[in-house]
## 1
Amino acid sequence: MLPPWSQLFPISSFQLGFTTFSPSPASIAELDVISVPLADSPLGIHKIMRSLTHEVICPPPSLQPSSDDPQLAWEAKYPKGSCSPKTKIPGGLGFYLGGPKEIVSLLDVGAKETVFGYRVMFEKGWEWVKGGKLPGMYGGVGDTAYRCSGGRQNDRCKCFDVRLMWRRDGKGEIYAYLPMNETNTNALLAVPPYSTANSDYGISVGIGAWTFGSGVWTTIAQRVKLNDVGRADGELQLWINGECVIHAKGLIFREDEGSHIKGMHFQTFFGGHESDWASPKDQRAWFSDVSGAVVR
């Protein structure tokens, strides 16, 4: 199996990358990768959900210890009864992340293809309940890019959001908000092993294509290739621990040249919104080794 730092960059070449993986291996130094600390300003973090924290701590040891295990991580806390961030008991963490200024500059001028990733560990004995959200990429036209989740229907042609989810028993999926059209619906619903459209919400893509474990680090890398305007040639790809588990083609991420990849919607919580989605006890998860690359 490839080492975790390689799993964060599962592509053969790219224009410029960044990582909080530490210490950076010599083989990363040979590439054009910026080493940055796990901190808000260097990672271009903004629109932080103030009711939640993302403290940098030393995470507990993994059940499968490795010399590559993160030494620092953001800790997400999910109190008993916590659900969606807008419910009475919020949990998880939430903000947007563009990366260092060099990466943001490339995104702002219209980078067409990017990879973003991170590592996550759910605490030992984690209870999955019905499911919950995990970070994924987002984009769109200007500030409209921030309005493509939570069941929103307005201006969906001007944004996209492809966060991940865990489901019962740790089954994974991509929870995709893309422009609403028959092309996207057909392409996403065709992704194996199972995909389904959620009433008034996004499309659950590739349910069970992988399964999360608790007490161990999982490496996630996600690739978005924007379509040429007027063509359905966009792509959405996902690697788990270096293995490609989802690759959807023939997608329309944008209908406007002004729609850009913005970075990561770095959000996690239990839910859904109803109480039967809520965490049954106080739980914690840790996020580390945040990385990304502009391919072109």
## 2
Amino acid sequence: MAENGYTVVDAFPDLTFTRPVDIQNAGDNSGRLFIVEQAGRIYVLSGEDATDMEIFLDITSIVNDNGNEQGLLGLAFHPEHEQNGYFFVNYTDRSGTVISRFRVGSDSNQADPASQLEILTFNQPYSNHNGGQIAFGPDGYLYIATGDGGGSGDPQGHSQNRRTLHGNILRIDIDSREPGLNYAIPSDNPFVGNREGYREEIYAYGLRNPWRFSFDPLSGNLWAADVGQNAIEEINLIEKGKNYGWNIMEGTREFAPDPDIDTDSLELPVFEYSHPLGRSITGGHVYREQRHPELYGAYIYGDFVTGLIWALWHEEEKEPVNISLSETNLLISTFGLSEKNEIYLAAFDGNIYRLVQQKD
């Protein structure tokens, strides 16, 4: 399971999970890790040496995970979680996607299931391509990844339709409210005040099914991995107001050309790889820890189907450098960071892994 000097080891050999899909920390200096199960449970671990776990939140009764890509898909802690106890989840019910806020009670390891406040909901026409990632940006706003609504080839044309919430990265202000909403639209969102009926929550669009995005803790850059159709898996650097091309393009290849849209106006990926090298990209994180100084500044990511893990270095006006780190044969569902920016990954064998350097 090693390649280019790296392998993965079970980070918590005493613990196993069922379909883990997200790994988060609370950012409150507690050292805790939170593991999200697709069925609707979140477990809390005391730290890097945890040998037991406890249920932080169980919302299996309201989560619909009947489809392969449905369920409880994302978790994000409020930047001031230590003071207000708030955290946010992204899940599917039988109607569609729900972004909700919960809070902890007197015990910081126990969330209150009755504290749910629905922030944003929208329908999902198919069971697949739900996106799922949520994260707070350096600006304090909540970013939300949405898929194109599913089906094959974006049959309802969502990703190029800015009047829908599908196929986008959204950005909302959850610390303010506008009439009729449990959030507000940031005043500098790209389509604020438009007269075409575009959804003002949209930050960037033209995505197929972004499965994991993250912010570089040093630069603040927003990295997003977008799962491809039949040929290309891609990595994008997300910028405000830009169109990332789906379904006109799949990566750098034409997919369903639109004569009304100039392909030169589309934002192309910073890196892509073709099938069958991988078949479903799992986005990761830019590595900013010193345990592996040789990987510092690299975007660490993998593929759900083939289990390959890579490191990508990207600099403006330079050719990207991408190296293979490890061949795991795992169904890699997500990557996550500890409070110290140490990287973890989860797989559908139920384990949480840590990337380590192979000893000679």
## 3
Amino acid sequence: MISQKTYQTLSVDINDKVAHIILNRPDALNSMNVDFWHEFPSVIHEINNQSAARAIVISSTGKHFSAGMDLAVFNASNSDDNIELGRKHDHLRRLVLKLQDCFNVLETARMPVLMAIQGGCIGGAVDMVTAADCRYCTSDAFFSIEETKLGMTADVGTLQRLPKLISIGLVKELAYTGRRMPAAEAKAAGLVNHVYEDQASMLTAVLGIAADIAARSPLAVTGCKEMINYARDHSVADSLHYMSVWQSGMFQPQNDMMEIFKAKAQNRAPEFEELTQIDPLKIF
């Protein structure tokens, strides 16, 4: 079972169809070291492929949510100086694509992903949370596109996803300056759904929201995620067309809808089939 595995950078707890992933390197400010880049996407893939949960909550330990990319990753990624220059640059491009894929999994996962953020959410952590479905934070939280302070351009998703969440002018200001955006401003800008006084109350609330999601038909919820993400990236006309195709194949009123009606009549919670498991190694 996923929740029984031992990880170096995080822990996983699955209860009542909600997976809670906790970044667990507080002494290192939950910075994203080499182990993290292997473990994080692997956990998301496993939960998704095994249909192990209907919602995912990601939180962390310590004072800060995450300080972003661990500098050791930059050293580990340095390729041999003897490699021909064009090939060396191709190697770097492919490395960036691999890092992007580590957070793309949050969008391709069939179940919603909710972020619970305390303290600093810096650099690569902003890349991560912008790929989630919903974000919540504590009153002491702040967000910083830190890369310009290091003489580089953010390259793992922030500059592509953040303009879909808040105004492009504000994105440019944050990216150009590297300044901190506090929780109240993040809420006013629409980056986070709600601000909580402390981490305990935030986790209680966010896990409660995840439980509400988990109580719904997983097929209906994954349909919502698919359609909303598609609409974000396509025209209204194209999105409406895709909606008609999706609904013609996925809407099965004799199953989940009838179960909801029966459950209401019998004064009980509805029971839904899980989404099918995926074996990435099998074609048939």
